[in-house]
Every structure is written in C-alpha cells, then in structure tokens.
Amino acid sequence: MPIIVVDVMPKPEILDPQGKAINGALPRLGFTEFSQVRQGKRFELTVEGEVTDEILAQARTAAEEMLSNPVIEDVVNVAVLDEAEGAR
Amino acid sequence: MPIIVVDVMPKPEILDPQGKAINGALPRLGFTEFSQVRQGKRFELTVEGEVTDEILAQARTAAEEMLSNPVIEDVVNVAVLDEAEGAR
C-alpha cells in the first residue's frame, strides 16, 4: 500500500536541544565530521488504494494543521514514498 | 553546506503509541484517507565541505550506533539532501 511521508523540522531560528545534545555527543564517540545536528520528525501515512492529488493535498493540510506546530516547526517535505523504498 | 538526512522509524512489529494517537485524531479532524500512521525521527547532519564516501559511511555508522535504537528502530534512509531542497 502506498505511503505518504511527511517530514517536519524545527525552524532554523528555534533552539533544538535534542539536536544540540547529539551534536555534543558525536565527537566523543569519534564522529567528527558533522558541524551541526538538528532533530525533527518523520511521519508515514498509509493510504488504502491509489494516492490521488486530492489525498496528497489532504496529507499536506494534515501536515500543516496537525502534524506540525507552525510556531516552531516547518513542514519540509510531503511526498509519496517510492515503491522500491516502500517495499522494505 | 551539504546536509545528510538520516531517517529512523519504529520497527513494524513495535507498537508506536504516538502514531496510534495521531491515527485516532485524524478522522476527528476530517482526515479520513489514512489507514495507518507511524511516527519516526528525521536527523539533519550538516557537513563542512564535500560529502565524501567516507563521511557518508560515518553518517551510516552514527545512524546505526547512536541515532537509532536497533532493538526497536530501523534506519530507513541515509542520504545527502539534494541542493534544491537544501536551499530552503
């Protein structure tokens, strides 16, 4: 069944304490190549049947109105998961 | 600066109470097209300079060893964010 992925990230100007904590821990574990880490959310919405434009629009609305907090978060991606990845 | 995206989702056999809660709330708000919702995490790792194969491999290792809990989560995606999306 098709899956719509919604990605939500904290706005750039918003502090991200989880990301900061990871950023502090990475070098201690030997990962020194990353200068910044931000942590957001990924939602997978399963659709029964075909993903029409209407359903995708509904997913976008749900992403803006319910899955994200527009004061502190941006919806950065709403897309249908491609079949190959979806098969996992 | 290039960004590596790491996506982590709860394993299919693991209960996902946050996803279940969203799934219950969606129809009440008029979103009726989605049969299942799962909530995972999205990390954005900023890299200074070019993303070499070595850095991408390090991101994969960090994803498996630090950004996810392999008992309950799967790393479903580690990829460089394409420029167009990264420009936001």
From TrEMBL, chains A, B:
Function: Part of the phosphoribosylformylglycinamidine synthase complex involved in the purines biosynthetic pathway. Catalyzes the ATP-dependent conversion of formylglycinamide ribonucleotide (FGAR) and glutamine to yield formylglycinamidine ribonucleotide (FGAM) and glutamate. The FGAM synthase complex is composed of three subunits. PurQ produces an ammonia molecule by converting glutamine to glutamate. PurL transfers the ammonia molecule to FGAR to form FGAM in an ATP-dependent manner.
GO biological process, one term: 'de novo' IMP biosynthetic process
Gene: purS
Name of the protein this chain belongs to: Phosphoribosylformylglycinamidine synthase subunit PurS
Localization (cell): Cytoplasm
GO CC annotation terms, alphabetical: cytoplasm
Organism: Micrococcus yunnanensis
The family this protein is said to belong to: Belongs to the PurS family.
Keyword terms of this UniProt record: ATP-binding, Cytoplasm, Ligase, Nucleotide-binding, Purine biosynthesis
Family matches, as SUPFAM superfamilies: PurS-like
Quaternary context: Part of the FGAM synthase complex composed of 1 PurL, 1 PurQ and 2 PurS subunits.
Cross-referenced PANTHER family: PHOSPHORIBOSYLFORMYLGLYCINAMIDINE SYNTHASE SUBUNIT PURS
Recorded metabolic or biological pathway in which this protein acts: Purine metabolism; IMP biosynthesis via de novo pathway; 5-amino-1-(5-phospho-D-ribosyl)imidazole from N(2)-formyl-N(1)-(5-phospho-D-ribosyl)glycinamide: step 1/2
InterPro entries the record matches: PurS, PurS-like_sf
Claim: Nucleotide-binding is one of the keywords in the record: yes
UniProt GO MF annotations: ATP binding; phosphoribosylformylglycinamidine synthase activity
Pfam families attached to this UniProt entry: PurS
Reaction equation(s) it catalyzes: N(2)-formyl-N(1)-(5-phospho-beta-D-ribosyl)glycinamide + L-glutamine + ATP + H2O = 2-formamido-N(1)-(5-O-phospho-beta-D-ribosyl)acetamidine + L-glutamate + ADP + phosphate + H(+)
Protein EC: 6.3.5.3
